[in-house]
Amino acid sequence: HYPLRRQRQMCIRDRASSYLASEQRVQYWIRPALGEVRALLKAIEVETAHQRAQQIWQRASEGHLALEAELATTTEDLQTRGSMQIDSRPVRPSVVLTRLGTVFMDEGYMDIARGFFQQAVLLSPRGATRARQGMARVCLASSENIEAETYAREALLMGKFQAKTVSSWEQHISARAKQGKDLLDQELFTSLQLNQSGAVLARSILLIVKRLRSYGDARWKQIAIEWISRDEVIDEIIEIEMAKILLSDEKLIGRDPRLIALAAHRIFRSEKVSPKEMVATAKDVTHMLLLDADEPNVRGLAEKAKRRFGAELKLSLIHISEPTRPRLI
């Protein structure tokens, strides 16, 4: 109900304002301040929200300048003053600008968001990874695809392919697709593999696979096959997800027995797979092999299910797999 929602938003704004009046440290007041701006946007008070955002930025900037002045205190000044207390380092100005831009972008006010993101990039020319991601999203929404690709690439490189940069792959591939370019920048992809490892690499690979597949780029399958064929398991859940994507594709258009076996084996051997996932995978594998006039080893799959989850699951697997066998008339 709109009036009640508006009343709740105004309450949030008032509570945030009262809290901000007494708190001086930016790392503590920034989140309720952003909540206040978001509440104003929800209430469609855009101009007021923009003015409040500018006040927040001004306050954060002044706090940062005061801290920098304290850090620049000389030994002579310290001896004169006797002692001084310096609080923990506050949120960086570029981060404040990025968060403000994100609030406006999430509510659909792209032009205002662009202004905050651009300020953040200017303040931190060798950083501001999330501001560059924001700019990439804003540019994509405005069909500024060359600029979007540039910002996404900068986010990946300046962020050194860390966890915070994973979403930049989606933006980068989308921007290249809209320009009619080769979807995957091979140089960038190679750099990712050389400079990153572990779960972050796995998450990046999964996103790249999904994006290439959505655009019909056949390389997604090669990347997925290479990834799930590795002896080393980096991230169990992501590798299961990769195997499911491969199995789903084979179910729809491929039905290559070798790939079906590879994907199913990767799912079955995982300690993270649930009983329902094991049964569903066994059913799909059985059905695909029968369609190709191949003989599935239902009993072998059932024994594997029994070892993992008990006799009850074995019976369930046999029950759902056997009826898929074509009947001769």
> What is the element string, with H for helices and E for strands?
HHHHHHHHHHHHHHHHH
* Average pLDDT number: 80
> Strand fraction band?
under 5%
Helical content band:
over 70%
Give the overall form: elongated
Q: Identify low-pLDDT runs.
A: 323-329
What's the tally of helices? 17
Total strand segments: 0
Query: Major β-sheet, in short?
Result: none
Secondary-structure class:
mainly alpha
**Nearest-angstrom radius of gyration?**
27 Å
Q: Cα distance, first to last residue?
A: 61 Å
Question: What does this protein look like?
Answer:
There is one protein chain. With 329 residues, the chain is mainly alpha-helical. Helices cover 74% and strands 0% of the residues. It contains 17 helices and no strands. The chain has helices at 2-20, 26-42, 46-71, 75-81, 93-106, 110-123, 129-141, 145-158, 168-178, 186-195, 198-214, 219-228, 236-254, 257-268, 275-291, 298-309, 311-321. It is elongated. It starts with a helix and ends in an 8-residue tail after the last helix. 35% of the residues are buried.
